[in-house]
Write a structure and sequence with these properties.
By secondary structure, the chain is an alpha/beta fold. The protein folds into two domains: about 130 residues, ornithine cyclodeaminase, domain 1 (2-Layer Sandwich); about 180 residues, NAD(P)-binding Rossmann-like Domain (Rossmann fold), CATH 3.40.50. It has eleven helices and 16 strands. Strands 1, 2, 3, 4, 5, 6, 7 and 16 form an eight-stranded mixed β-sheet that branches. The protein has an eight-stranded parallel β-sheet with strand order 10-9-8-11-12-15-13-14.
Length: about 325
């Protein structure tokens, strides 16, 4: 079995390549080529966080496995990631465990890459400004993902902690070519061509009245039925797409709350990104459309990302091989 750490994941899974891998994963998921039950989260005994299991199986690439993670919201205050764990990969034909891959880095990259894929498929071709809600790990990777999908000239960042947001913007401006700046006004970030929310909010931080005609929105930060980052108006104004309908109808508070209010119904969700890629569902049809991708994350993304990492690791002799016999 090959053990692959964070540094190796980041080298073996660059963002541009991962967006292409996510395209394969989403086509396979929407085409029914991936077996994946709903993920399981169980709270810890002291309610300090939760433990998650996301199992799945695919024939192409021929692997099955699971992402096993911990989610501890208090970790950032300790200088630790909120999400930690690993992706386990097994050979489909023999059942042999072939890889154990750092889960935090896979999650950070593939989640942003899925948003990058949605942006590539749905955003206006001339989109050049990126409004970012949040200043954590996903904020960093979403800057990279949007830059892979469109020629981003300016990133406008909003966060609840103004000083932290300014530090984040300054750090990122040294790292990327785009102009990155902080704002105290969330409406300014929401007024960009592309808007990504990667917060831990439980109540809306993004209002529909702020969105400009023709923008594209990635809602990423929350994944429970009771929480949402965008208000009902944002959903009602948008053409809505998801990663997987089954997951959305069980976990996406951003959509379930407006549906429960009677503001929209399930038909307001036009389809899955994989269906857009396959040509079964139309994407943007007008420059004035507001398109919105609700991301929850599915194990197909982890399996395809892990398979890509494993293949490159084997080819390059990367990782640490461990004999379990």
């Amino acid at each position: 079995m090959r053990i692959i750490n964070r540094q190796e994941v980041e080298r073996l899974l660059p963002m541009a390549a991962c967006i292409d891998v996510m395209a394969d994963a989403m086509r396979a998921a929407s085409g029914g080529a991936v077996a994946m039950p709903l993920r399981l989260f169980t709270p810890l005994a002291d309610d300090s966080g939760s433990f998650g299991l996301m199992p799945g199986s695919t024939l192409d690439p021929p692997f099955f496995g699971a992402k096993v993670i911990s989610l501890l919201p208090g970790n950032p205050a300790k200088g630790l990631p909120t999400v930690q764990g690993y992706v386990s990969l097994f050979d489909h034909d023999t059942g042999k465990p072939v890889a154990l891959i750092d889960g935090a880095s896979v999650t950070a990259i593939r989640t942003a890459a899925a948003s990058g894929l949605a942006t590539r498929e749905l955003a206006r071709q001339d989109a050049c400004t990126h409004g970012l809600f949040g200043t954590g790990v996903q904020a960093v990777t979403h800057i990279d993902a949007a830059a892979c999908a469109r020629d981003i000239e300016e990133v406008v960042v909003w966060g609840r902690d103004a000083e932290k947001t300014r530090r984040f913007a300054k750090e990122q401006s040294r790292r990327v070519q785009a102009d990155v700046r902080a704002t105290d006004d969330p409406a300014e970030a929401a007024g960009c061509d592309i808007v990504s929310t990667v917060t831990a909010a439980t109540e809306p931080v993004l209002k529909g009245e702020w969105l400009q005609p023709g923008c594209h929105v990635n809602l990423v930060g929350v994944h429970t039925p009771q929480a949402r980052e965008a208000d009902t108006a944002a959903i009602r104004r948008s053409k809505v797409y998801v990663d997987l309908m089954e997951s959305a109808m069980n976990e996406a508070g951003d959509l379930l709350i407006p549906i429960g209010e009677g503001a929209v119904d399930e038909r307001h969700i036009l389809g899955e990104i994989g269906q857009v890629l396959a040509g079964a569902v139309p994407g943007r049809t007008d420059e004035s459309d507001i398109t919105l991708y609700k991301s929850l994350g599915i194990v197909a993304q982890d399996l395809f990302a892990a398979a890509h990492i494993h293949a490159r690791a084997v080819a390059e002799g990367a990782g640490t091989e461990v004999d379990l016999d």
